[in-house]
Amino acid sequence: MTRSRRTHEALFLLAIAVGALTITAAMAACDEAESPLAYTNEEYGFTLQFPESWKGYKAHSGPFPASLTAGLEPSANVQFDLAGPTSMFAIQLWDDDVWDQVQAEGAILPDVLARKDRLVFTSLIMLSVPDGGQALSEEEFQSRLAEVQAIIQTFELR
Fold first, then answer.
1. CA 125, CA 110: separation in Å to the nearest integer?
2. What whole-number distance in Å separates Cα of residue 127 and Cα of residue 118?
3. Beta partners for residue 157, in sequence order
4. pTM summary value
């Protein structure tokens, strides 16, 4: 076999391998994006993964129900709820300048997840019960708290 022919065969096999890897990666990305338990926020550019026990969760944006510090509010608030107790947790986005003021006040601060484009992404665990709702038992509370903490750990910027 000539050197030229071996080179062409090697390049051909390399092209097949690269093509196969590209197709596999694209299929994995589609599977992840189509998962009902994968949350992607295109507006703010982040993702979260939810466990099977969170099937049917709701995500909604809007004003935060209570301020951590007087007069200082996040720029955006994406709240995640589950049947039963509501307001399980929120991902909040703060402008850098406002976040600096919040820190200066010495308030109890939400956990910082990431910084991007003059925004500070934070998480806030709430686990509140709606008016008239039944409170969680200690065991249920601890279980939900562990789930929420695990979900927040999957936070990724896109």
1. 8
2. 29
3. 46
4. 0.70
pLDDT tens for 66-112 read 555 567 888 899 989 887 656 689 999 999 999 988 888 877 778 89
Taking residue 143's Cβ as centre, other Cβ atoms within 10 Å add up to: 13
* Nearest to 143, CA basis, from 104, 85, 96: 85
Cβ-contact 82, 60 below 8 angstroms: no
Most confident of the following: 51-60, 77-86, 123-132: 51-60
Distance CA 36, CA 63 (A): 25
What token pair was written down for 72? 């200082």
Contact (Cβ atoms closer than 8 angstroms) between residue 30 and residue 23: no
59 CB neighbour count, 10 Å cutoff:
14
